[in-house]
Each structure stands twice: as C-alpha cells, then as structure tokens.
Amino acid sequence: MRPGTLVAATFGVIAGTTMVQALAQVYPDRSVRVVVPFAAGGGTDYLIRLIADRLGTGLGQTVVIENRTGAAGAIGSEAVARSKPDGYTILFTPGAELATRPLLMKANPVDPIKDFTPIVAPLRTFSIIAAHPATGIASGADLIAAAKKSPAKLAYGTPGVGSAFHFAGEQLKARGVDLVHVPYRGSAPALTAVMANETPLSINDLAITLPMMQSGKVRGLAVLEGRRHPALPNIPTLGESLPGYEMPESWFGFFGPAGLPSGIVQRLNTEISRAYSAPDIKAKLDERLAVVVPGSPEDVTAIINRSIQVYGAIAKTAGMQPE
C-alpha cells in the first residue's frame, strides 16, 4: 500500500470511529421503541412495562412499548432484525424463544446470532416441576421412582409444544424419566389442569406456581435449574435427585438489529441495568421471583450460545424436527 493510501485509510477509520462516538453522544434525540413479540398483559410485557418510565427518564426520551404478536414471537423479532440499527427500535424477549425457534420453525425468519446485536440480559427466572397432592409424589426422588416404575404413564402439562418447559420434560425423558407431555394454551391453563388433577404434574414458571404451592393446591417438587432459588432455599434442584440434570435459567434479553453501534449498545446497557436495579423496581421483581443480573453484551452472547447448545442437544435426542 502506498503511504498516501495508508494515511487516507487511517483517517477514514478515525473519521468513522468519531462519527460513531458522536452518534452515541447525542443518542437518543427522539422516542425509543421497544418491541415485545408477545401480547400485552403477559409476563414478558409486564417485565418491560415495569421499567418503561424509569428507562425513559434515564435516556431522556419517551420509551414506547409495541406488542407485535404472531408466529410464536417471530413476527416481532423479525421487525426489529430488519429495522435500522440506530437504537430507536429494540427487542425485549424471553431468550428461550430466540434459541429454540430455529429448532421448531422451518420458516424461522431470523438468526438469533447473526441478525441481532445483544445489549443486556438483565433478568433470570426459574421453573419448577409440581404435582397434585393426590399423586403422593412429594419430592424429586419420588417423581423419578414413580416414572421408572411406570414409564410413559405420568403426564405433565406445560404452556405449549416447544416451550422451554416442554424441552425440560424432554430432557427428563432423555435421562430415563419418561413422562407424557400434555400441551396447554398458556401457563394459566396448564396450572389449572394440575390443580384439578386433570394432569398429575406441571412444569411451569416458579413465580406463577408458587401461590398454588403456598395454598396447598399443588406440591412443588424441585426447580429445574442448576441452583436453588435464592429466595426459596428449601426447594431443591432436580439435579440433586437426578445427577447431571440441569436446564438453563430462563432469561429475558434486549437486542438491537445487527450492526448497532457500540456506543449506543453501552448506553442502553447502562440505563436498562440501572432501571432494573432500582430498589423499588427490584422489590417488585422479588415478588415475582425474578433475579436481576446486570451484565455485558458479551454475557448475552455467551448465554444465548449456551441455550442454543442445550436446547439443540435436547431436540436432537428427542427427534424434534422444525415444521
């Protein structure tokens, strides 16, 4: 390369870097739209609306929540992936939906790695397997013994085919705990079914199951993640009775389109993390047993890669094919 060409290229890099930094410094200068790929009033919608005003204050602009539903979250996710990478359209979604969608949908319109810029995954939630008291199953060890005594006899309900809870059940089957999956149209119907003993077992979100456990309508057996919930240390993990069993913690993440400038990513990361960590917001999250975990964009990449690996291995073992 000739000296003049090298100098020009160097100045070009510097100029480009300066423009990105300048863009981040003035960002945002108008409202920021957060796309939720699920219906208003649901758990995901609640978790973002909880901080919308606080986040807007931190950014100095209004934060607008847009629910773009359909195709198991694919429509809203695609809308963000195809938007301009300027920080004014971002996605808030359960991580499992991004990780499992390519395993379930032939026509999946987005790649969870290539089509997005990770911003932050600030929340973790837990899942639990619970039983109707009439089953006599009182622990993870009881469940394993009952399933091995009568394979493919005990049924468990989940919020639907392809949910993280369904994958958790398939992982149990792969480890010799053969249960029958009964999908319902959402978490509430699945819980109602186990309370009525329509299905003897349920794999569902811990936060919405806990009130039923406290009232004695269902019996919590074990959480499915690799550690006990910090607020409920007396509830064991299933891995304590079934060594090696562990599901990824359910997580919620923010993403921008691919190519989102690093300065904007860092600004959003900081303000989102600050909003969720505010004492009054954290108190509300504690009520829902959600754990706040501020982290870097690189942490998001690591957790989604792990989710893809774990769910992909489960799908392969179970013979699950995209449709």
Task: Write up this protein.
Strand 6 (155-158), helix 7 and strand 7 form a beta-alpha-beta unit. It is globular, with a radius of gyration of 22 Å. The protein is 44% helix and 18% strand. The chain folds into two domains: 3-125 and 250-318, 3-Layer(aba) Sandwich (D-Maltodextrin-Binding Protein, domain 2), CATH 3.40.190.150; 127-240, Periplasmic binding protein-like II (D-Maltodextrin-Binding Protein, domain 2). It is α/β, with parallel strands linked by helices and 323 residues long. The protein starts with a helix and ends in a 5-residue tail after the last helix. It has helices at 3-26, 43-49, 52-59, 74-81, 95-104, 140-149, 164-174, 187-195, 206-214, 262-277, 279-287, 297-318; strands spanning 32-36, 63-67, 89-94, 116-125, 127-131, 155-158, 180-183, 201-205, 219-223, 250-257, 291-292.
Task: Provide key terms for this protein.
5-stranded mixed β-sheet, D-Maltodextrin-Binding Protein, domain 2, single chain, 11 strands, alpha/beta, globular, 323 residues, 12 helices, 6-stranded mixed β-sheet
The H/E string reads HEHHEHEHEEHEHEHEHEEHHEH
The radius of gyration over CA amounts to: 22 Å
Shape, per Cα inertia axes: globular
Strand content: 15-25%
The count of β-strands is 11
In the predicted model, the low-confidence regions spanning at least 5 consecutive residues are 6-11
Strand order of the largest sheet: 2-1-3-10-4-11
Main β sheet profile: 6 strands, mixed
Percentage of residues in helical conformation: 40-55%
Q: Give the full name of the CATH homologous superfamily of the largest domain.
A: Bordetella uptake gene, domain 1
Distance between the termini: 52 Å
